Amino acid sequence: MKHVKRAAWYLLLIAGAAVMVYPLLWLVGATFRTNAELFSSAGIFPLEPVTEGWRGAFAAYGGQIDLLRALLNTYQFVIPKVMLTLISVTLTAYGFSRFEFKGKRVLTAFLFATLFLPQTVLYVPQFVLFNRLGWVDSPQYLPLIVPAALAGDTVLVVMLMQFIRGIPKSYDEAAALDGCNSLQTLWYVLVPMLRPVLVSVGVLQLLWSVNDYMGPLLYVKTPPRYPVSVYVKLSMDADSGFAWNRVLAVCCIAMLPQIILYFAAQRFTTPEAGGLKE
Amino acid sequence: MKRSRTQLRRRSAYLYILPWLIGFAVFRLLPMLWSFVCGFTDMNLFRGVRQTGLMNYTEIFADSTVLRAVGRTMLFACVSVPLKLTAAMLAALLLARQMRGIRVFRTLYYLPSILGGSVAAAVLWKAMFRDQGMVNAILTALHLPAVSWLGEPHAAMWVLILLRVWEFGSPMLLFLAALRQIPQDLLDAADIDGAGAVRRFFRIKLPMISPVVFYNLMLSFCAALQEFSAPFVITDGGPRGATTLLSLLLYRSAFTANEMGYASALAWVLFLISAACSAAFLLLRKKLVYLPDEQDAGGAA
User: If both were cysteines, with which of A86, A180, B191, B279 could A175 make a disulfide (CB 3.0 to 4.6 Å apart)?
Assistant: First the structure.
């Protein structure tokens, strides 16, 4: 009886996993199909595999932008963004969870309120602001980096605050007795203990930033600077009439770095920390 | 001596939160206030302001396109969020058992969520739901009628909903963590009393993790009200405006027509809708959520 129950459980798990992963497997298969064969079949394996889609995926659009360039562009702003996010988010969470100061209640309320403030409300005024600052289409991708570098992603601050609260204050006090100032306490005592959460914070910010479409759509105007999210949309608009295998190969390559990174980071993170935002 | 030390700590606290404070003031608070004011003007990015008053709001509430978009946005949120959370809960219950290989399954279930709001996932969806696409091929193989997914207004809305339901990984992980924290003796006691799996779920597990359920409900709902990339990439708001969600309308009026004043007013309408929904959820939370700490204060239902 117990064996039957266990087998049934595995069956359910496998059925669920099949539904979840099937679209991705179909995507991989579809990139190796001919365009004539691409639609009209629900299977994964192509009848006569071709590499036409993959070869086409790397071709350039009018010599201005190609997939590799777009990937490089993406990581050119995503990597500094993630680094600066980690620093600012850690400092902010530390300030809020370990110190008493005037106005703390009000500021904490603001912090939590921004959690539920729709980003959509800010697109218009932020665009006008960045436009006035001359940051639209900036080669350093300033509008995409600076708000995050100032701990703009409040969800990450809140997530870190929860973990800092879980660390007994006696650690801080012991460090202070040993002569550490507050910054040294943060760096030598708390940061090592927070390492798994910090990896999660970094991975989440990286995934959101790579996937983000609205930001680049508004603030990157010159084709050679397009990041991969804009490039994927561009290749769809240009090719979906006739070369779907090429479009899907572009999608596949665009997804790959995130999936690899996710698997690589799994070893270092706490799995429960992964689910904080949409 | 003691006092100057606390003063020093206080001062350093401001230094730590300074980056956030600047970011909050410059990139959140100011833009927010600015857009409130801007909503009462006819500001155009190139033409500037010519007129002020309530005209944007009177126009919004008289415009059937906007009202329809509000309706479609609410429909999208009200259908996709419960489905997504139900899927997340079922998956979490499946994964909560300690079994060999469970980590692999957890990773597979989370995989689609890595792609989040990415354009690539939306393009994949568009390819799958074409008339001759993979989904219709499966339907035909099962002897079911094919559906013109992107051509029928109702079907197109389902395409967007299914994409977001597919990405249920974030709430799933939070449910899973919450399920693990339910004291085992509670479940054992229910077992001894002869409670079945369904009863145990509704009487013990669900009440115990209800704070997490509400947190996810609010967060997912807020995110659903802002949905942009799926309708923009997959349907471009069509067919016949059926998937023109509010954020898409907002994008068009701000960045295609450059009508910043009108778009700001629209943004505030969206903001008020989502604030009203959040408030409703918080009220509901007081009624329905089980909070052991507040039991003595009469806060538990």
Answer: A180
List A residues 46-75 in contact with B (Cβ-Cβ < 8 A): none
pLDDT for A65 beyond 90: no
Main-chain phi, psi angles of B48, to 5 degrees: 80, -160
Q: Which whole number is the average pLDDT over A126-155?
A: 92
Per CATH, the architecture of A67-275 is what? Orthogonal Bundle (1.10)
The domains of chain B, with CATH numbers, are 64-294 (1.10.3720.10)
Among residues B247, B237, B103, B234, which one has the least CA distance to residue B166? B234
Are residues A240 and B108, on separate chains, in Cβ contact within 8 Å?
no
Look-up: residue for tokens 């980071």?
Answer: A265
Q: Given B112, B117, B173, which is nearest A272 (Cβ)? A: B173
Rounded Cα distance between A255 and B237, Å, is 25
Contact residues, chain B, for A20 at CB < 8 Å: 108-109, 111-112, 166
ipTM score here? Answer: 0.88
CA distance A63 to chain B (A): 22
Q: CA of B283: how far to CAs of A231, B214, B215, B288, in Å?
A: 44, 11, 13, 9
pLDDT score of B141 more than 50: yes
Q: Tokens for B160? A: 């967007």
